[in-house]
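Sequence in, structure out.
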Amino acid sequence: MNDFDPEPQSNWTNILKALADETRLQIVHQLLKKELSVQDLSNLLSIKMYNMSRHLKVLEASGLVHKRKDGVHRFYNITDSFKSKLSNDNQVLDLGCCKFIFDTSMYQNNF
């Protein structure tokens, strides 16, 4: 399991690359609400399971999400250390170098 650790410098690059994709931002936004399976995320965001798995792999490698196995199912959630960088309402992610604001109106059709 990778934990969200902003040091060394190369980790910041991986984190920012992971969050640079709009689909992955939508995935993170959903996972901020609750733990979800690959299939749940795929259905919620209308993304093929193969593509969803690829996005989740990038997020997991960057230390932003954690995978929990339950039989044949894989459930994903946001790591605790990543959650510590979020505002109380889970709408602003402050990485120190930059802030991500999750604008729910932007995703109103999906969320």
